[in-house]
Design a protein that fits this description.
Blueprint (H helix, E strand, L loop, with lengths): L1 E5 L7 E2 L2 E2 L1 H17 L4 E5 L10 H17 L3 E4 L6 H4 L3 H5 L3 E4 L9 E5 L2 E8 L4 H8 L6 H17 L6 E7 L1 E2 L18 E2 L9 E5 L5 E4 L2 E3 L16 E7 L5 E7 L6 E6 L1 H6 L10 E6 L8 H6 L5 E6 L12 H5 L4 H13 L5 H24 L1
Parallel strand pairs: 1-4, 4-5, 5-6, 8-9, 9-12, 10-11, 12-14, 17-18, 18-19
Antiparallel strand pairs: 1-15, 2-3, 7-8, 13-14, 15-16
Helix pairs in contact: 1-2, 5-6, 10-11
Length: about 375
């Protein structure tokens, strides 16, 4: 059986201030074309279909379009909810939608009830383990201590128990949305440590033929049978080195896995640059990032004037500008109270300007600060007299 493994669509999410809906629609078109081109037997989507629990209408419409296009292919699709999704909202109408071959698995109680598909070699059981928030599902799984490992282990016990009751030779696929030990995170995944230690060992999934993971945005192979597809699009500059893709998985008659990475369309490359503003502007290599979305980190010891506008003249798709000055500020090692001791309002304000900008105020700026403090004092005096 040939599977296409994808996850973390995050429909409705923006990249900094860029609306990604067109890029997400392009990915859906690519997904449908890939299913057709590679004669895929089943599609698995391992959570975070949406970016938030109540997605914008445009994202819902895109998801609806994806469902109709996948159903029209006649290729079964199995989806689970992720930690960004509202499981109940995503699962509305699951019974009816299932009749069209789109199987939504969002209820923790159904972890041990598979979607069963057939090929020339027999049955393949697909078990959907949606994101399991430990505090919310510990009673469902009868675990004493709420933790990611304990609830996932209990869910997998149900999977293995159901599988043991099926015909010998039944192959198995598990969809799960979790942080598995050995996976490499990026800046764009939502932290799930609030439910206890986030990472769970890959051994939790022992006993099945393939585990299609979602949550981490980089495509990763933890073992031959346990893989992350990653997100089809980049959602943070920490993903600049990612190769966005999906896994094409072939399960043979014995359940052996053969995997191939299929690239996803990239709306724009990502670039991260760092240095002093003048050095960057004079760097002949800067032009190669003209078509990229760019994150720039300036290391000037003093914050330069109009840095964003000046860089944007050469980098029209500059999206993020950070300031990390190359300077040693010994004052940072002194307590706040010590730094303020014996200093007047004017001196404190001037020190603040120097700390933020890297250089203290000039004479004109000092005069502005002085006038401001004089006005505040005069107002306070008038209020006191009026009492």
């Amino acid at each position: 059986m040939r599977l296409l493994h994808t996850s973390d669509w995050h429909l409705g999410r923006a990249f900094h201030r860029v609306n990604m809906l067109d890029a997400q629609a392009e990915f859906i078109g690519h997904l449908v074309a890939t299913v057709r081109e590679h004669d895929v037997d089943a599609v698995v989507v391992s959570g975070d279909v949406y970016d938030r629990a109540v997605p914008p209408l445009a994202a819902v419409e895109l998801f609806d379009d994806a469902l109709h296009r996948l159903a029209a292919l006649g290729v079964p699709t199995v989806m689970i909810s992720g930690n960004h999704d509202s499981a109940r909202r995503l699962g509305v109408g699951a019974g009816l939608i299932g009749r069209a071959g789109i199987h939504l698995r969002t209820a923790p109680s159904a972890c041990g009830t598979p979607v069963v598909l057939r090929d020339d070699f027999g049955e393949v059981a697909f078990y959907g383990l949606p994101y399991l928030e430990p505090a919310l599902v510990k009673d469902e799984f009868g675990v004493e201590k709420a933790g990611h490992e304990s609830v996932l282990a209990a869910a997998m016990d149900r999977v293995r128990a159901d599988l043991a009751g099926r015909a010998p030779g039944t192959r198995s696929v598990v969809l799960a949305h979790a942080f598995v030990t050995g996976g490499e995170a990026s800046d764009s995944e939502r932290d799930i440590t609030v439910g206890g230690v986030a990472a769970v060992p890959a051994g939790v999934f022992d006993g099945v033929d393939y585990v299609a993971l979602g949550h981490l945005h980089g495509c990763q192979t933890l073992t031959d049978r346990v893989r992350y597809s990653g997100s089809p699009l980049a959602y943070s500059f920490s993903e600049a080195e990612h190769r966005k893709s999906m896994w094409l998985i072939d399960l043979d008659a014995a359940g052996a896995v053969r995997a191939e990475r299929l690239d996803c369309p990239v709306p724009r490359p990502l670039a991260r640059i760092r240095g002093r503003l003048e050095d960057l502007l004079l760097d002949p290599e800067l032009s190669r990032h003209a078509e990229a979305w760019v994150e720039a980190t300036l290391t000037d010891p003093v914050r330069p004037a109009d840095p964003f506008a000046r860089l944007a003249e050469q980098l029209p798709h500059l999206l993020s500008l950070a300031f990390a000055p190359d300077r040693t500020d010994d004052a940072d090692e002194v307590s706040y109270a010590t730094r303020l001791a014996g200093r007047g309002d004017q001196e404190i304000a001037e020190d603040f300007v120097a700390h933020v900008r890297g250089a203290g105020p000039d004479a004109a700026e000092q005069a502005v600060l002085r006038d401001a403090f004089d006005a505040v004092r005069a107002d306070a005096t008038l209020r006191e007299v009026a009492r």
